[in-house]
Design goal:
Elements: H1 3-22, H2 25-35, H3 49-55, H4 63-80, H5 88-106, H6 134-149, H7 157-192, E1 199-204, E2 211-217, E3 221-228, E4 239-242, H8 255-264, E5 268-273, E6 276-286, E7 297-302, H9 323-333
Antiparallel strand pairs: 1-2, 2-3, 3-4, 5-6, 6-7
Helix pairs in contact: 1-2, 1-5, 1-6, 1-7, 2-5, 3-8, 4-5, 6-7
């Protein structure tokens, strides 16, 4: 999830656990603990763009890091608040909840989380909710703001914190239901159209959970499509894109290329443009793909102009968006 959501969720959890004992400091501690795994952004100060891709949500989002961080923070916070005589077990459960909730929520996005680093590079990714979904983030955000303003003695604090966590939890369950339904329709359409495939993924389009992007992995290329949960037509129209492995042969063994292959998790294509050979990771969708089935992919890396590869994951996310684009986006969400 985005950083503001982690801060808000962490503040609500903190107030529930320790607000009655240490006041609003509990919210601060909760927000900090919940955000700690994202300290990996510092790696951007010295790593290459492709190395950052693998470092982000890697070791700092692992269960091993969570254990070490919880023990260290529990020791520090207990020492700082020794006057209140809060048991070590309370600190451990509180801080463990904060960090594990962060790791759990991030796994529902398309990026993937390295829960098992450094023992395994496997990334956990449920592809269920967009990284910034206002329908999830609104409730803990409102609750955290109210808790920050209200006095410690306000009798509505616990109720507000609970609702700030319950409502996004219910929304997440709704997202899981949409995911299951979308996957079922993709399988149904692939079977009806007699399309053979190795695997497929579905993930929400930006800022919502009603319009879904599907990418199907074949032997030498991929089928992509967008589907709204409100579509009346059950048949999904797929667009084929070849992988073009022949364009990538010259880059085999190059460190950035090998890192891109690992990051793509098997979902990649290549093409030639004015910027030379581009490596596309298909897991993050297309630039306005709901308008144009042949639209370029959000994630594209210039293999021959490596100095122009900043903001890799997001640089194509909103390229070309305007008022008309927003209107067509909302229209597509409403279904065909």
């Amino acid at each position: 999830m985005d950083s503001l959501t982690h801060l808000a969720v962490g503040a609500c959890i903190g107030d529930l656990f320790l607000g009655h004992r240490i006041g609003k400091k509990a919210m601060i501690y909760g927000a900090l603990a919940s955000s700690l795994p994202d300290i990996d952004f510092l790696a951007g100060l010295w790593l290459s763009p492709t190395a950052i891709l693998l470092a982000h949500r890697g070791i700092t989002h692992s269960l091993l890091f969570a254990l070490a961080a919880v023990l260290a923070m529990a020791f520090l916070f207990r020492h700082r608040h020794r006057v209140e005589k809060i048991p070590a077990s309370v600190w451990l459960v509180f801080l463990g909840t904060e960090i594990l909730v962060h790791l759990f929520l991030d796994a529902f996005n398309a990026y993937g989380v390295g829960w098992f680093e450094p023992f395994s590079s496997y990334r956990v990714s449920f592809n269920t909710i967009f990284v910034a979904d206002p329908f999830f983030s609104l409730w803990p955000g409102i609750a955290a703001c109210l808790l920050l303003v209200w006095k410690k003695s306000n009798t509505n604090r616990k109720k507000t914190a609970r609702w700030g966590l319950l409502l996004p939890s219910l929304y997440l369950l709704y997202c899981v239901n949409n995911k299951i339904s979308t996957d079922r329709m993709v399988r149904h359409s692939l079977s009806n159209q007699d399309i053979g495939y190795r695997s497929f993924i579905t993930t929400p389009a930006p800022f919502n959970n009603w319009l879904w992007y599907a990418v199907v992995r074949g032997d030498s290329g991929y089928y992509t499509a967008y589907r709204s949960v409100f579509d009346h037509d059950t048949a999904i129209k797929f667009t084929y894109t070849p992988r073009n492995d022949n364009l990538l042969l010259r880059f085999s063994g190059r460190s950035d290329f090998e890192q891109l292959l690992r990051f793509s998790q098997g979902y990649y294509t290549s093409d030639s443009s004015a910027n030379g050979i581009e490596f596309n990771v298909l897991r993050f969708g297309q630039i306005m793909g709901w308008e144009n089935p042949h639209a370029p992919f959000v994630f594209h890396y210039y293999l021959q102009r490596t100095d122009e590869n900043l903001m890799l994951v997001q640089r194509g996310r909103f390229e070309g968006w305007n008022r008309r684009t927003v209107r067509t986006f909302l229209k597509r969400i409403r279904g065909n």
